């Protein structure tokens, strides 16, 4: 997901302050910003909506389920 640089910097600072990892770093490493578990983006998500949420938040399927409830 392409964001304005200022917006991405804000999100990275927020996630670094709260989760000890920036969202950009999680994306680059292919891991969840919450649990830090490495994931395979091709097989991790149960549906297109969950995959889109990954693009927005860098949350794995298990953490998405914890935050939003499981389907």
Structure description:
- The chain is mainly α and 71 residues long.
- The chain has one domain (5-68).
- The chain is 56% helix and 0% strand.
- The protein has helices spanning 5-19, 23-29, 48-57, 61-68.
Quick recap:
The protein is mainly alpha-helical. The protein has helices spanning 5-19, 23-29, 48-57, 61-68. The radius of gyration is 12 Å and the shape is globular.
Instruction: Please identify the structural class as seen in this structure.
Output: mainly alpha
Give the C-alpha Rg: 12 Å
**What's the helical proportion of residues?**
55-70%
Largest sheet: none
How many domain modules?
1
CA(first)-CA(last) distance: 24 Å
Q: Tell me, briefly, the overall form.
A: globular
Written as H for each helix and E for each strand, in order along the chain, the element string is HHHH
Mean pLDDT: 93
Count of DSSP-assigned helices:
4
Question: Which residues form runs of ≥5 with pLDDT under 50?
Answer: none
Task: List key phrases describing it.
71 residues; mainly alpha; globular
List the helices and strands and how they pair.
Blueprint: H1 5-19, H2 23-29, H3 48-57, H4 61-68
